[in-house]
Amino acid sequence: MEDRRAEKSCEQACESLKRQDYEMTLKHCTEALLSLGQNSMADLTGPCPLEIESIKIESLLYRIASFLQLKNYGQADEDCRH
Fold it and tell me: Where on the tree of life does the source sit, at the highest rank (predicted)?
């Protein structure tokens, strides 16, 4: 009985850590997308527009994957439309 409670507690801790990882991924991807969206293509002195577009697509894909892992299907579907 004692072993089962410890196992259950460990499972809950692992789920909590996974959730935190997915939420952190969402936060970073959202920040990247917002940052990229604030810069106009004319202001760019760094990476070329193709690289920027690639970063945006990759960030959206990470967001979609994280939303799916968190079972937030509505938001994942909305990101797919972008």
Answer: Eukaryota
